Amino acid sequence: MYKRWFVQLYLLMLIISGCAVQNSLEYREIRYDIDLTKYNNRGLYLTTGDYSGEYVPIALVQSYCQSGLISADATHPRFEDDTYRSQPKSQLRTCKIEQLLDDIVEDAENKGANGIILLKIETDITINNGLEQEIIKITGLAIDRQK
């Protein structure tokens, strides 16, 4: 009786230990190089600092992304490309700083802003169910620079 119980307990422990996630401390370097000239060429002023001239604050702008799985029946317009639709199963979508920056620039310009100051880009990586998820958040103050 005890032998059978011990064997069942051993098998259960073996199954559970096989599902354990090993979190290791990996060395990692991540560099971001964001070319702001495409915005400057359009007349939009972008800075992580303040603006020394006169301006009217228009809006606080923010864009947030968390990488993860997108199901094959997703209806978000960003996922309408043929490459994505041809995938039969869920697909891992990653965050791109440039896309998030484009989003807040578009929001700011649609509100009549010609600058974004106090631009802040935050990145983080979390572990969720044993998988790494990248999180990116971009915030700023959309302004109308007075000429």
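The above is record 1. Record 2 follows with the same two-line structure.
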Amino acid sequence: MSEIATVITPDGKTTKIELPANNKKESKQRCEKLWEIVGGYFDAVPGKGFRTIYCHDEGKLKGLPVNQAATDLLHPDYAGTFLVGTVVVVQEMNILKRVKMKGGEK
């Protein structure tokens, strides 16, 4: 089962994509797709509203352009930093389902 994710390029353009599910069966395909989109090894950083943002692991070292649209989605704990290059944003639906069952997002 796949999920919908959003690709954000440094110029702010967004594209919806289908990303393989985050499970044991499809983890290799998911990693390969993320690798292809961000351009190499990637990190997962927390975003606002139960989002996970996948970004290039060495993007700053490689001088990739700042991605302000993606930076604006970072969790407040990451204030003062920035994201670079093309990123993939995933809404963590499993977490949202658990929160809704317990009475709402905090």
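The first strand starts at residue 2 and ends at 8.
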